[in-house]
Prior knowledge:
Blueprint: H1 7-19, H2 27-31, H3 41-56, E1 61-63, H4 64-70, H5 77-84, E2 88-93, E3 98-104, H6 114-123
Antiparallel strand pairs: 1-3, 2-3
Amino acid sequence: MAKSVKDAAAAKLIQDATSAPGVLVFSELLELSYTQEPLNNAQITKLKPLSIVSLASERRILPYPLLLALLDMPNVCELIHATYQDIIRGKLDQKEEQLEVEYTMGRDAEPGKVDELLEALRSW
């Protein structure tokens, strides 16, 4: 739907999708060139925990410095907020300064990943 709309209609679609409380899957919208323009601070804050989910798909231990730098977070409070949204569960290890991931919600497969996923399922 996003590919067929232009200008104000596209901005409205992006605003609605990224603002809706229960909507957490909208990778197609994020790939569009004009998506970054209409995002407000609340929407960017909503996307950051989803980025943690993407990182957690690559590794189980996520060091705080990596997360804070990649996600442009000022402190660990936003990490804690992500755990309350139940999109990621894990142990926030203050001593080791890392997030030990136990569970994450599913994310959309990136365009190039579908073939890899199918091959992994076939070999399994």
